[in-house]
Structures are given as structure tokens and as C-alpha cells.
Amino acid sequence: MSNQMTIYDISKKAGVSIATVSRVLNGSSNVKPKTRKKVMDIIDQYGYKPNAFARGLGLNSMKTIGILCADSSDLYLAKAVYFIERNLRENEYNSVLCCTGYDVENKKESLKLLLSQHVDSVVMVGSNFIINEDGGNDYIKEAAETIPVMLLNADYDAPNVYCTLCDDFKATQDATESLLKSGIDDILYLYNSKSYSGQKKLAGYQNAYMTMDKEINKDLQQCFSGSHEDIEGVTSFIQKLWDDGLRFKAIVTSEDFLGVGAIKFAQNNNISVPKDLQIVGYNDSILTLCCEPAMTSVNNRLEDMCIQLVKTLIGTLTGSEMPQKIIFSGELVKRDSTSI
Amino acid sequence: MSNQMTIYDISKKAGVSIATVSRVLNGSSNVKPKTRKKVMDIIDQYGYKPNAFARGLGLNSMKTIGILCADSSDLYLAKAVYFIERNLRENEYNSVLCCTGYDVENKKESLKLLLSQHVDSVVMVGSNFIINEDGGNDYIKEAAETIPVMLLNADYDAPNVYCTLCDDFKATQDATESLLKSGIDDILYLYNSKSYSGQKKLAGYQNAYMTMDKEINKDLQQCFSGSHEDIEGVTSFIQKLWDDGLRFKAIVTSEDFLGVGAIKFAQNNNISVPKDLQIVGYNDSILTLCCEPAMTSVNNRLEDMCIQLVKTLIGTLTGSEMPQKIIFSGELVKRDSTSI
DNA sequence: AATATTTATGAAAACGCTTACATTATTTTT
DNA sequence: AAAAATAATGTAAGCGTTTTCATAAATATT
Lengths: 340, 340
Known about the structure:
Two copies of one chain form a homodimer. By secondary structure, chain A is α/β, with parallel strands linked by helices.
């Protein structure tokens, strides 16, 4: 079996020392081309792969990145994980995935676990890793004392913490402003409690009103706290608001599933979309194409962000000075649920 | 820093040998309760975590399972990865994720990589890991010589290979039969080239016709080879068939996104669903709730399968004799896209 | 109380690599 | 052609655990 082979076996067969084999393996320049070829041939012939543990022990790095993610069954997070994993692998890094759920203690525990595994860095996927209370993010700061911490779509200033994010504030503000400018004043903002970015988007929504010098109605800011799978829950949540007498001409959301729930609500009530109710999703996921009409949504450049994040990560690990914050601009993808 | 501490430091502080510390760490019974407590206290006090590499080297196992998955951004596969990861972690196993894409060579390469990392087992998520040609699956057999190989929703008989799957054949046959029994003869079967299970479902579809003694029209078996994101592609694919004169009263699909594309097609052509066209999806994903009307779909018990798979895996790793094949029955979840 | 048995602990080898340092081979300089 | 400089290779010491085997302590048996 090729897997039982050790560097000793290879060195013996190639008639060199284990140090030379190691040098070939690690691409050291100080080895004669002829020797390198000889060793390589043996390695290829026997399909030898160095034992990752031993290598890790020696190098104190296993070329492994920890990926922390609340819930990789969430469409958006799943895509992020996918893009990050792919990019890491292209750079010859492995990823250990760790789904933490939304509980804070769990997140901390998972992080500790990854650290004990000596990952070279840890990527936190999603803004829900930012804890919105005093000292809540110390666990990030602490981890960053040991290894670089990469935040996807979250914003946190600390040494050795690198953020790659989309300007959700601005994207939401822009979308809201477009609606306001088209003469619609009663815009419901619907967000999900799970994600901190829902707050930032809320601020963008509010800022749009301020900028346009229009009055804000607090009742039009609503938080849905169910799961990202519970579209029916969203629909009845909105229905309840409606039945309670709340009225709106547009709904701006912090996630696509909320938008879909809104479209379903409109259908149930024979409200014409976009004529009498315009709806804006967020993330530009496949859900936008499933509903009727297809939904306008903010594309927040997930793939670009992930590519950049890995680029920054690799740079940091190889000792380059890297910017600690990179911000992408979201882009409103207009479909048939709006007429702006 | 707690992370730099070694077993030596702990042993010194506790006034015992490293062997004793190791025994405490590994829960060996041969250690006096008083000693254990003493050591534990030091460990807790300093937050010591053993170096995973060294441990791996010693044990030749890092309690890590490799997860192989073509594309974890696919809703279905993402959920599978999520469930598996969660269950593994509950059993104190880590998971290294590896997205292979659909290229066979890549899959083999990724598997080799995982093996070189000395994972304790490897889980292949999805039927696309079964290569439908002579000797195509030797790579699985080979891996199984070293470690147990777990297949999710794929069927392959070999020593040390464990399959957990859903009877997609039967589920599709049942759905098709229900439609046939309700008097509809022209059922389009639409599947996706990416997944081998599309073939098994096709067989189920065909078997329904045979069982009901009805004639099969080969033109009604169509394969869409686009991406799982390309709902619009599906819609125009069906439109083309329609424009070419193909007619059908129902569409049975191998995946939800195909069903959604079908519903969109119906909408575009003012074909009433389910009155004039019934549509059945597969996987019972969130997409079924996004479209209008909500889509009937086969729930193939993904979570149950994943739980069982991990159970089987842990059993195997701990030396229990485990069944090599466990088959779940799919369940048709009826919604408004059918009237059966 | 002396001996046999069991239980708890320690010393040291092993795990398979990397790498600093020592040595040898090769090339360049004189 | 000898000396100096450089390049290639080898030797051996880590890296931080686990674990076997030997030994010491505690308990049971006579």
C-alpha cells in the first residue's frame, strides 16, 4: 500500500538521504536536477504521499484553514463555504468545516477547537459572528493573537483581523432611495434576527429616509426571527402585520427568503406585484428565479468577496502586508418584482 | 499562551510524568482519581489543549473524517454536508470538506489527498461518485482497503463500503404510477445529467409504465445538462420541446430546480398547473415553497439518511459489525402542483 | 507480617516528518 | 593545479504526543 510508505522507504529506493527527499518534497532549491528527478520518479512510481501529521508536527502547520459557519445548509452561507473551500484548495490549503449554529457559546467553543487543531487561519463566514455587546468580540481578538482571522461580510477592527465585506448599508440605502424617489413612501423593511448585517441594512434603510428628508415610521421596521427555511412563516408574519392594519407599497428585505415570503403574501391577498407592492430581496440567490414574478434583489458579490478573502489570507500567511478591510459594492439586480 | 503549552509543562506543574497526563487526556482507567483530578485542574487552569499533530502522529488518527462532495453550493448537497458535519461533531469527529466538482479525475485526486491526510474514513456525498463504466469505481474499492468508505445516496457493493440511500427508484415509480392511475399517460420525465441517481429514477419511471402496462414514449425522457442554478435554462429547454410539438400532461423530475423550471414554463405558456399540467419535483427543498403553486416533491429523508450514515460510520470505526446497506423510503409530499 | 496480586506511575522508544549543522562534491578563482 | 567558494547531500536532533514495558505503590491473600 502506497499509504504506508515513509520517507525512509523512498530515500532508500532512490539511494539518497531522507533530507534530500524532504527537500524535493518541499521544493527546496538546493537539490541537483538529476537527483530531484530520480526522487520524483520513485515518489510518482509508488504514489507516495507524506504523512500529514508528521509534516504538521515538523512544520507546525498542516496547511489547513478552519471555516466557521453558523449553518452551511443556509443557501447563502453554503455558497460562501463552497467558494472559499474551492479557492483555498486551489492554493493547496485544506479546510476544516465547523458549523456552529447561532449560539454564541457554541461559536466560541468551536473556535477553540479549531485553534487546538493548529489551523493556519480561521475564516468566519457571515456577520453573525459579530456579537453586538460589550467585549462580545474578544474571542475574535484573542484568536487573532495566534493566527490571522478572516471575516466574510462582517466588520470588526482589531489587529490581525481581516474583513472582506459588501457595503450592505449603501446597497440597502440605494434600493430604498430608488423606491422613495419613485414616489413610494411606505416601505416596509423586513429583516432576519439571525444576522447582524440585518442591522446594517436597517441603518441603510433609515438613512435613505433621512437623505430624502422623509419621515420614518417605526412600525415599518419589522424583524422576522424564524428559520431561513420557513417561507410560510414569513408569509403569515406579513399577513399578521397587514391584518393589524399596517399598510405599505413596497417591502425591502435583508434576505431573499423574506422577499419570497412577501411575494407569497401578495399572491394570497391578490395584491399585484409590482403594481401595488414592490419587493426587493437580498443576496440574489436562486430563490429570486423561483418565485413569480422573478424578484429584484441585491447581488452582494459573494464570489468576488470569497476570492478576495482567500487572496488576502494567502497573502497574510506568506508574509505580505495586506489591507485589513476590503469593501465591495452591492449591485441591485432588477427583475419583475419592482418597477424602479 | 495556552496554546504553546505542552504535555511536559503540564506534567511538571502537576508533578507527574507525561505518561500520566496522557492517560488522563485519553481517559485511561488506570489512574488514581486523586491524580486525575490534580492533573485535570492544571489542564483546566492553563486551558491546555494537546497538539493535534503530535496526537495524530501517535494515534495515527486525528479523529477526522473526509467529506467529498461535488459541489457544496448545491442546495441538496449543502444540506447533506451540514447534517453530516453536525452529526460527526456531536461524536467528536472533525470533518475536512473537499469539493471535487463533477470531473472524475478531480474526484480521484481529491480522494487521494484525503487519504494522505490520514482521515479515519471518507464520506462521499451524492450518487455522482459512482462512475458508470467498467472498473470506474475501483478508486472507491481501493480507498476501502485502507479505511471505511461511506456513500450517501449511492449504491456500490464492495468490502468496507457502506451505503446509506433512499429508494429513488421506488419513489419515482410510485409518483409516476399515481399519475398514470389518475388517467394521465403522457408524462415527461426530466432529469439532470450530473447525478447518477437520475438514471435510477428514470428506471423507476419506466417501471411504472411497465407495471401499468402502458406504452413508453422515448421522447418523453429528457435530460437537461445545465447547472443546478439555471432555472431559466430549464424553462427554455422545456419550451423548446414544446415548440417542437412534444406534448405532455405531467412532468416528473429528478430534482426540484427542474420542477421549478417546469412551473415557470407553464406560467409563460398560460398552462394551468395542476389542471393541465402536473409537476413533481424531487428533494423537497425550499424551492418547492418558492414557486407558485407550491410544488409536490419527493422527500428523500436526507436528514434521516445522514444521521444513519454517521451512526454506521461511528459503529464501524469502533469495531462494531455494521450493515453495509441501509435503504430509506422516499415520501411524496403533495402540494398544489399536482392533483393526485 | 510476609507474600502474591493488582493498580498506578514513570522511563523511554516510537510515530514520520523538517531542518540546522556538518560534510562532501563541484565549481570558480588564483 | 591548488585554494577558495559554492552547491549538494547526509547526519542527527527536534516536534509533542502515545504506548510498551519496567517499576513502584497499594491492596488482597495466606
